[in-house]
Amino acid sequence: MAEAVSDAFARGEHLLVQAGTGTGKSLGYLVPSLLHNRRVVVATATLNLQHQLVERDIPALLDGARTVLAQTPKHAVVKGRGNYACLHRIREGAPDEQGVLIEAPSGSLGEEVVTLRAWAEEESDRSGVGDRDSAPSHTERAWRQVSVHARECLGAARCPYAQECFAERARDTAADADLVVTNHALLAIDAIDGVPMLPEYDTVVVDEAHELVARVTQASTAELSPPMVERAARRARAFVRGREADDLEDATDALRDALEVTPPGRIASPTDQLADALILVRDSARACHSAMPKESQEGETDAARQQVKGLVDEVRKVAERMAAASESDVLWLAEREGSRGGNELRIAPVDVALTLRDKLFGENTVVLTSATLKLGGGFDAVARSVGLWGSEQVGATGGATTAREPGDGTPAEGAAAADVTWDAIDVGSPFDYAKQAMLYVARHLPPPGRDGMAEATLDEIVDLVQAAGGRTLGLFSSRRAAEAASEVVRERLPEIEVLCQGDAQLPELARRFTEDPHACLFGTLSLWQGVDMPGPTCQLVIIDRIPFPRPDDPLMSARQRLVERRGGNGFMAVAASHAALLLAQGAGRLIRRADDRGVVAVLDSRLAKARYGSFLTSSMPPMWRTVDRELILGALRRLDAAAS
C-alpha cells in the first residue's frame, strides 16, 4: 500500500485503496505522506481515527523518522473553530437575545463552565492547544458557553485576543506543517465552498473514504425554521434603528403559516404560499443585514454585533437557496418530534459527484482509502459516487477517456472538465475470513415487513443467542426493532444480560459488553461502524434486515430518480450500494484480530433469494457461507464451549 500511495503521489494520479481491518492502513499512507516533498492533507471522518493518528501513529513515525531523515517532518491538526475555546467569549462574556451579557449559569452546568474557563486560561498561559478533546469532562451545553461558531467570530483583525487565540494558533502551526490532519467536513468547506480553512496543498489522503459523500453532503446541508428566523430578528432589534428587524419577525409568521400546511417529506415544487414566504424571509433578512451599522455604536460590542450580523446573513443565504428551487438541490420538510419549534425546512445537494470531481479531484492528487471501497466486488460504485468514471481508470478498456459508460447513470456533461485518471488496488487482509468466519443467511424466514419483526424472526434471534451463550452484537434497522429483540431475549434467556442502545451512553454500554463475555449488545446505526470489540465477547453478529434506505428518504429517493433520468439503474446505484456499504461495515464488526472466530447471521431471506443478493454478499468479507440453520447453531455452541 505504501508503495502504491507513493507512486500515486509521484505520478499525480488518483488512487483508491481498499485496506481491510488489521492491515495498518494508516501507516500505509502516513509513511509516503511524511516522505513526500510537498504538504499532504489527511482527512478523516471520525474523531476517533483523528485522535489515533495524532496521538499514536504520527508520533511513532516521527520518532522513527529522526533516525533516517535529515529533517524531521512537522505535523498539525486543524479543526472547525467551534472545537476550540474562545478567549473573547470567556473573558468578555456572550450577549443574550436582548444584548445583555450572560453570566455563568448556576448549578452543575455553572460548575462545568467555570472549570472550562479556568482550563482555557491555563491552556493559554502554557501555549496549549485549547481544543475540546483536551478539555476536562463536560456536556455539549457547557462547551457552547466557552466557544463560538465561525460566523460569530470577530476575526483576527478585530479581536483583542487574536494573538492568544487557540484557533488562530492552530492555523499558524498548520501553515508551517508538512502533514495536516483534518476532517472531511473542513476539507469540503475548503476545497468545495472555497472558504480558506487549510494552508495551501495539492495532495490529499481521505481515510474512511466510504463516508466522504455523506460528509460532504452534510457539510452542504442547511436548515431553516421559524424559531431560527425569529431569533435572528429579535437579536437584530438592538442594532437597527428602523423597522427592518420587525419586518423580519413578521416574515417568521408567514413562514410558520406556510409550514403548517406543508406535509413532511420532499418538496418537489414549493407551493406559492411557501415560495412567497421564503422570498419574504430572504428580502427581510437582506434589508435587516444592510441596516446594521458597520461600526459599533455607543453601548454595543463588536462581538454582539458580529454575532447578530452572521446570524441574519445565514438566514438570508439559506432562504435564498431554498427560494431558488434549483434542480441541483433537494428541499424537504423534516419532522422534529418533541420540538417546540415545530418542523424545519432542510436543503441538500442532490448529487456531489461532479462537484467533488471538479473541486477536489480536478485540483489535487487524491488517495481514497477504507476497509470498504469495493461494492459488488468492484470499485465502480464508490468511484462514480465521487465523480470518477470507470472509463478513466488506468488500464480500463479504451484507455482514460471521458465517454459515458452505458447504463451507469454517469453524466457525460462536465466530464471533460479535468484530467482525473485513477487507479485502484485491494491490498487484502491479514485475516483468513473463510476459516475464521461464517455468513449465515436465514433463507427460511419470511421477508421483513413494515409491521415490526415477525415472531419467527424473534424466535431465530433467541435460538442464535442461546447457542452462542450471549457474545452477540445485534445490528438492527430501527430503535424499535432493537428494543423488541432485547425485550424478547431478556424474557426468554434471563441468565444472559442484554444491553440495548438507549439504556446508557454508548461508551458505557460498550465497556459493559466487553467486560462480560456472555452479554449481548443490541443497537442501531451507530453500532454498524467504528465499534471495535475483538475477542470472545463478540462471536455472533446479528443483522436483522438488509439496511436499504427508507423509501421516503428525500435525499436518497431524489438521487435514485436522478440516476434513472440519466439512464442508469437507480435502485442498484443508490439503494443497493448504500445497503452494501452498511452490510460490509456491519459484518466487519466480527473479525477484528487474527484469532477471532464467529458467525454473521443475516435474518433477511432476500439476501439469499433476490437478484441483488449476490451484489450485496460480494460486498461483504469473503466468509464461508451457508443457509443451514442447524449447522450454524452447532458451530455457535462449539465456539461458546471453546471460549468458556
Question: Which regions are unreliable across 5 or more consecutive residues at pLDDT < 50?
Answer: 96-102, 397-407, 412-417
CATH topology of the largest domain: Rossmann fold
| Percentage of residues in DSSP E strands | 5-15%
Number of domains: 4
CATH architecture of the largest domain: 3-Layer(aba) Sandwich
> DSSP helix count?
25
Q: Enumerate the strands of the largest sheet in spatial order, edge to edge or round the barrel.
A: 3-6-2-7-12-1-13
Helix content: 40-55%
Amino-to-carboxy terminus distance: 38 Å
Largest sheet: 7 strands, parallel
Estimate the mean pLDDT confidence.
88
Which superfamily, in CATH terms, is the homologous superfamily of the largest domain?
P-loop containing nucleotide triphosphate hydrolases
Structural Rg: 26 Å
Spatial shape: globular
SS elements, strand count = 20
Structural classification: alpha/beta
CATH class of the largest domain: Alpha Beta
Protein name: ATP-dependent helicase DinG
Keywords: ATP-binding, Helicase, Hydrolase, Nucleotide-binding
Domain Helicase ATP-binding: 1-269
Region (Disordered): 121-140
Short account of what is shown:
It catalyses: ATP + H2O = ADP + phosphate + H(+). The protein has 644 residues and is of the alpha/beta class. The chain is 44% helix and 13% strand.
